[in-house]
Automatic annotation (TrEMBL):
Gene3D superfamilies: MetI-like. The keyword Iron-sulfur does not apply. The keyword Ligase does not apply. It is found in: Cell membrane. Belongs to the binding-protein-dependent transport system permease family. The chain crosses the membrane at residues 27-45, 65-92, 104-126, 146-165, 252-273. It comes from the Bacteria. It is a multi-pass membrane protein. Keywords: Amino-acid transport, Cell membrane, Membrane, Transmembrane, Transmembrane helix, Transport. SUPFAM superfamilies: MetI-like (SSF161098). This is Amino acid ABC transporter permease. Pfam families: BPD_transp_1.
Length: 304
């Protein structure tokens, strides 16, 4: 326990009678922010070109809600596939088998380095390179084949493109989380007689999740917003749905506001869920940190 004693010449202020120090810069910053907020509110309310009545009319339009459902579905599927593939890639990068480690490193480098929009367009035009997609033995017989134009639809191209990008990012997130667990934890589990599988499931993974959850939640939010890119391949997501409407009505700004509002709603819900998961997986760590906090004692023996 660390004990700090103040010099006898220094007198301690009575906390009960102490007054808060004046911070004029905080008052100035607060007033400036309030002025900016008031100006922004006035702009939103008094500018008729926002056409809030049009926003209210199309906010719950069936085609918009259908596009919203497609956006959420794409994000969930891409995150699920990306997490599974990313976990395998992370294990491969941590493997002692050098060829597997090199292959995983190249995969992550390639799919993190190419912009998602380029990948979406590439996969949508895969039929140019592969007119037929087949399954079989390399350089041997084929078991089955399909026309690429039939298989590669806007939906499949979107799932493939987003999942590949997501898997590369999730591989790095999971790898960092696993490396963040102290090696002594594995040694202690081995000394207790736990198998490697039990060590991973009961010791390593619960501690790694505290590091993995925050960036994974942010990555899920990023892929949700990234689904707007699939509108370039005519995928009927949220952005494409409002584009179809404003191409007919020429009410561009109100329809874009509709899309923005729905993106904000979904992201807010996901952020709340992310915060809950962070608190859930950091409970033991927070308690341990509080227990290790040193006690500071004053010269009269009172502990602080």
């Amino acid at each position: 326990m660390t004990t700090l004693s103040a010099p006898p010449s220094e007198a301690f202020d009575d906390v009960a009678t102490a007054r808060r120090r004046a911070r004029p810069w905080r008052w100035a910053a607060g007033l400036a922010l309030a002025a900016v907020a008031a100006q922004l509110a006035w702009f939103l309310v008094n500018n008729d070109r926002f056409e809030w009545d049009v926003v209210a009319r199309y906010l719950f339009e069936p085609t918009v809600l259908s596009g919203l459902a497609t956006t959420v579905l794409l994000a969930v599927v891409a995150m699920a596939i990306g997490s599974v593939v990313g976990g395998l890639l992370a294990a491969a990068q941590l493997s002692d088998f050098a060829p597997l480690r090199w292959a995983a490193t190249v995969y992550v480098g390639v799919f993190r380095g190419i912009p998602p929009l380029v990948q979406l367009i590439f996969w949508f035009n895969l039929a140019y390179l592969l007119p037929r997609i087949s399954i079989g033995i390399p350089f041997g017989p084929e078991f089955a084949s399909w026309d690429a134009n039939t298989v590669i639809t806007p939906l499949t191209a979107a799932v493939i493109g987003l999942s590949l990008v997501e898997s590369a990012y999730m591989a790095e997130i999971i790898r960092a989380g696993l490396l963040g667990v102290d090696s002594g934890q594995r040694d202690a589990a081995k000394a207790m007689g736990l198998t490697p599988a039990q060590t991973f499931a009961r010791v390593v993974l619960p501690q790694a999740m505290r590091v993995i959850i925050p960036p994974s939640g942010s990555q899920f939010i990023s892929v949700l917003k990234g689904t707007a890119l699939v509108s370039v391949i005519a995928m009927a997501d949220l952005l494409h749905s409002v584009q179809v409407i404003y191409n007919r009505t020429y009410q561009i700004v109100p329809l874009l506001i509709v899309a923005c509002l729905w993106y904000l709603v979904v992201v807010t819900v996901l952020t709340i869920g992310q915060r809950w998961l962070e608190r859930h997986f950091s409970r033991g760590h927070t308690a341990a940190t509080s227990a290790r906090r040193p006690t500071v004692s004053t010269s009269d023996g009172a502990a602080a």
